[in-house]
Write a structure and sequence with these properties.
- There is one protein chain.
- This protein is an alpha/beta fold.
- The protein has a single domain, classed as Class I glutamine amidotransferase (GATase) domain (Rossmann fold), CATH 3.40.50.880.
- 25% of the residues lie in helices and 23% in strands.
- It contains 6 helices and 13 strands.
- Strand 12 and strand 13 form a beta hairpin.
- Helix 1 packs across helix 6.
- The two termini are 24 Å apart.
- The mean pLDDT is 92.
Length: 235
């Protein structure tokens, strides 16, 4: 008997100018690391393009699990603040659509995996907030290199994957400020105690989020591929 592959919906991003040779077309896309990693561990990834939030219910009904990728900053109005920094790195249409996806995934009891921005957005949806700008967490090294240590909570899922201390990459300018009531911290950076990973404390909400990018490292380090294996089959 053939076992069906879990269908993993990866929420997409957009670029207004793909820099191509055909009129610089706008594109919807998923960074290939998410797609390749899910495929390598045995999942079936599909892209969920940014769209009307009213379609979130239908999209979530089609998948087994939802992955929220990295990308733009989360606009501060979604966590009840005014913009205190000057930045063009927002996509409010994406924010609104992914918020609808998260709420619908919770309603349908579908597991959620959040990477970088994705983790931050789940915290926002559940009632938390973000630091709008932090320093020293956008590394100068290549994406496949690591830049700082994180301390991981004992017996957490990440402890089983990475151990108690992991050396990870870092590409974010926002961070968790107020933690949402249904979440708990399972990793912090060793040097400045920035929150680096979260999981749900609610048995009816299956969620795991990391601030670093295993999608950049899945093909160079076993632990990061193991993260996706856990997300696809065990979360």
């Amino acid at each position: 008997m053939t076992t069906l592959q879990p269908i993993i919906g990866v929420a997409a991003n957009e670029r207004r100018d793909a820099g191509d040779d055909m009129g610089h077309m706008a594109i919807s896309y998923n960074p290939s690391g998410y797609i390749k990693a899910v495929q390598l561990v045995g999942g079936l990834p599909i892209m969920i393009p940014i769209g009307d939030p009213m379609h979130a219910k239908r999209y979530i009904s089609m998948i087994d699990k939802l992955v929220l990728a990295g990308g733009q900053n989360v606009a501060p109005e979604f966590y009840g603040e005014v913009e205190t920094i000057q930045s063009s790195d927002y996509n409010r249409e994406r924010d609104a659509f992914e918020i609808a996806l998260i709420n619908e995934a919770i309603k349908q009891n579908k597991p959620i995996v959040g990477v970088c921005r994705g983790m931050q957005l789940v915290n926002v949806v559940l009632g938390g907030s973000l630091n709008q700008k932090i320093q020293n967490h956008w590394q100068d090294k290549a994406m496949t290199q690591t830049s700082h240590d994180v301390l991981i909570s004992k017996h957490s899922p990440l402890d089983l994957i990475y151990g108690r201390k992991a050396h990870v990459n870092s590409f974010h300018r926002q961070s968790i400020k107020q933690l949402a009531p249904q979440l708990e911290v399972i990793a912090k950076s060793l040097d400045d105690h920035i929150i680096e990973a979260l999981q749900s404390t609610d048995p009816n909400l299956r969620f795991l989020g990391v601030q670093w990018h295993p999608d950049f490292m899945y093909n160079v380090r076993d632990e990061d591929l193991a993260f996706f294996r856990y997300a696809v089959f065990n979360l």
